[in-house]
Design goal:
By secondary structure, the protein is an all-alpha fold. The chain is about 80% helix and about 0% strand. It has one domain.
Length: about 170
């Protein structure tokens, strides 16, 4: 709007002073100003979107790292450790002693993974960005895969517990 007013003001001055040549130059200058202001406006709009995308991707990356940490910690929690006779070595990590403790731990891991996936999904709730949406989908897929492996362990513990109770 300001550029249009400026162009008309420049056009009136040019017409009064020198004639048609100056008027055409003023029109061209006004159009150039209008185009450059439009480009600057669009750039500023995309700048905000890029900043939001960057913050969201950084936070989602942190969630992905958290998911991998949960996966690393549950990796050594095998059901066979509490179901069979197990002789630990000197370098063996501390293990759970009962099916209940291990099942509870694995259940907590599954809950942490689920919450991580839900928090990642919150980042696309108000941000309509295809890159962020794709990244969140990848995190949710990762969470689902790891969680299904954890639930397999829980099912093994539950099945073995029921078999042991029947005996």
């Amino acid at each position: 709007m300001i550029a249009v007013v400026f162009a008309f003001t420049a056009l009136r001055q040019a017409q009064l002073e020198t004639g048609l040549g100056a008027a055409l130059q003023a029109i061209e200058a006004g159009i150039n100003n209008f185009v450059f202001l439009g480009i600057a406006f669009v750039y500023l709009l995309t700048l905000e979107r890029k900043a939001k995308r960057g913050r969201a991707l950084k936070a989602i990356h942190e969630l992905r790292s958290l998911v991998h940490i949960v996966d690393m910690h549950q990796l050594t929690k095998d059901p066979e450790i509490v179901l069979e006779e197990h002789t630990p070595t000197a370098s063996s990590p501390a293990r759970f002693r009962s099916r209940f403790e291990l099942a509870r731990y694995l259940d907590y891991c599954s809950e942490m993974l689920s919450l991580s996936g839900k928090v990642a999904a919150l980042y696309v709730q108000y941000l309509d960005d295809p890159v962020v949406l794709s990244t969140v989908t990848e995190v949710e897929t990762l969470v689902t895969g790891i969680s299904s492996k954890i639930w397999q362990k829980i099912v093994i513990l539950d099945t073995a517990g029921r078999a042991a109770d029947r005996e």
